[in-house]
TrEMBL record:
The chain crosses the membrane at residues 30-52. The lineage of its organism: Eukaryota, Metazoa, Chordata, Craniata, Vertebrata. Residues 1-23 form the signal peptide. It comes from the Eukaryota. This is Si:dkey-112e7.2. Pfam families: DUF4730. PANTHER family: SMALL INTEGRAL MEMBRANE PROTEIN 30 (PTHR36878:SF1). Keywords: Membrane, Signal, Transmembrane, Transmembrane helix. It comes from Scleropages formosus.
Amino acid sequence: MAPRALLCALLALVLSLVPGADALDGGDAVALLIGVVIAVLGFCACLGWYDFMPRPRRDRRRKREEQDERRPT
């Protein structure tokens, strides 16, 4: 059995052992919505942080080479 299939089977077994909720009231719905909003905001924040990370050295080297080409010799 492939590792991925084994992992899926194990996950399905574990989730089948968890008892379901008897009732869902308003407080549970609000908590769920707040959790989803926080998760989405966290994901977007991580994407934004990744966008502002420094570029790889290759880009820095290329920028330096362009500056050297513009500089009169």
